[in-house]
Design a protein that fits this description.
It is built from twelve helices and 17 strands. It is of the alpha+beta class.
Length: 480
């Protein structure tokens, strides 16, 4: 296992950590993230490994903290020469058993990730997966991984901010286990580190061209730009916005000469239209924006960093649908008379009663709604502020009915009934309301949700057909 770098205490820490993973080894592969079980997980890992390995031939690769060999087997399948190390003997034993059963040539060895038993420049690729958090000296481990890399080699750190609430129940949570509870204060990264922190750490230790998976940046960029220049200021119509993702963040630039993207304008647009302003849900998880940093890098551009993608163990597709309810007609009137306003519910009740007498019960073949603006038209019964007597109110009468002509007729009478409502102590027969125009406004049909549901799928495109068509290939066609 190797001696401690500071004192005998480190050995105790590592012994506790190794004891935990020795105990977990027999069932390690059963927990989420320790193997590939679904097409969605397969697609996610293929994308990650394609980013890491694209354009490279057979490599000498080292899987540090290999566990039971998940990543080592993935690398070997792609034609690389793989060595896997772990300081939990039971993990190595399980990895060797699997290699023998699959007839795969991988060298698995017991070794300490902070003190590797290899000569400098032994590998083209060093990769770790969910390991930094469990090391007592993560920075020393990074130095050691760099030491065994050849010139031009690549160090890959695979990690995530997995939300336990999205993953299936694990057999055990390592961070709250008895072994880790005893030594957690000796593990600097136990609580996790942001992507930006890890990138800075790798750069400080001498690595160049440090970058990260652009998935979170791509999701953020897409969300911020979906309404074009709405993420800029001052507010304009949908002017052009330039978005750039380059591994160092998301850069948003307003292209209109009189508009600019600012930290305030970008952040406000990124966080609207959702129950939790810091989460943007997508089929395979969600974009976590709780640690985003917004920086003005020039007069028209804001840089955004700190966003992370939180994967889920399953893929969900949201299906939405609507269906036509009826035709709609509108009539607008206003009331200024204070006595009528004070008795407005009685006025509306009288008007509805007259409609029922003529057209039959509401809710069967038609319906009428009196929206009282200036009182509670927006919130209706949910209005939390105590009512105050308004100076005047505006009433939008809305009628829904299967037949457009009948809707117009009912709406006209429903609006005019507000003129003729009978109230105690009122001697006149009209004059209690004022109309904007003595005509019915024809509105678009009314629709309602007929489907608003999420469906679990095995693959993101399972429910959708995709067709590619190539045009313009073949013999050139002469054009005048």
């Amino acid at each position: 296992m190797g001696g401690g770098r500071e004192s005998g205490l480190t050995d105790v820490v590592k012994q506790q950590v190794a004891a935990h993973w020795n105990r977990r080894a027999p069932s390690f592969d059963e927990d989420f993230g320790h193997s590939i079980r679904t097409p969605a997980e397969r697609a996610a890992w293929d994308r990650i490994l394609d980013l890491v390995l694209a354009g490279r031939g057979a490599l000498d690769a080292l899987d540090v903290g290999c566990g039971t060999g998940f990543l080592a087997f993935e690398l070997a399948t792609r034609g690389h020469h793989v060595t896997g190390v772990d300081f939990a003997p039971a993990m190595i034993a399980e990895a060797r058993r699997k290699a023998a059963a699959r007839s795969v040539a991988i060298r698995f060895e017991e070794a300490d990730a902070e003190q590797l038993p290899f000569a400098p420049g032994s590998f083209d690729l060093v990769i770790s997966r969910h390991l930094l958090w469990t090391l007592p000296h993560p920075e020393a481990a990074i130095d050691e991984w760099i030491r065994v890399l050849r010139t031009g080699g690549r160090l890959v750190v695979v990690d995530s901010h997995l939300d336990g609430g999205l993953a299936p129940p694990a057999s055990e949570n390592a961070r709250t286990s008895p072994e880790y509870a005893a030594v957690g204060d000796q593990l600097p990264f136990l609580g996790g580190r942001s992507r930006d922190d890890i990138e800075k750490l790798l750069s400080v230790h001498g690595l160049v061209n440090v970058g990260s998976d652009p998935l979170a940046d791509a999701f953020f960029c897409g969300k911020a730009m979906e309404c074009a220049s709405f993420c800029g200021e001052p507010f304009m119509g949908k002017e052009t916005i330039l978005g750039r993702v380059d591994g160092t963040g998301v850069y948003l630039t307003a292209m209109h000469p009189d508009q600019r993207c600012t930290p305030a304008s970008v952040a406000s647009h990124a966080m609207y239209e959702r129950l939790n302003p810091f989460r943007e849900y997508v089929p395979d998880g969600y974009l976590d924006m709780s640690k985003c940093s917004y920086e003005q890098v020039d007069e028209k551009t804001t840089r955004v960093t700190g966003q992370t993608f939180v994967p889920s163990s399953t893929t969900w597709i949201k299906l939405e649908g609507s269906g036509k309810v009826a035709e709609r007609a509108l009539f607008i009137t206003g009331i200024r008379d204070p006595y009528t306003i004070a008795n407005l519910d009685r006025v509306i009740g009288w008007a509805k009663g007259k409609l029922t007498e003529r057209f039959g019960p509401m809710g069967e073949k038609y319906n009428v709604f009196y929206h009282v603006y200036g009182r509670n038209a927006v919130m209706e019964a949910m209005e939390p502020t105590p009512a105050r007597a308004p100076l005047e109110v505006g009433i939008v009468v809305e009628v829904v009915c299967d037949d457009a002509a009948r809707a117009e007729t009912i709406c006209h009478i429903a609006g005019k009934n507000l003129f003729y409502a009978r109230l105690p102590d009122v001697k006149g027969t009209a004059g209690t309301a004022a109309i904007m125009s003595d005509e019915v406004l024809h509105a678009r049909p009314a629709y309602e949700w007929t489907m608003n549901h999420v469906v679990e799928v095995a693959y993101p495109r399972e429910l959708f057909r995709t067709r590619f068509e190539t045009i313009g290939v073949g013999v050139p066609v002469a054009r005048p």
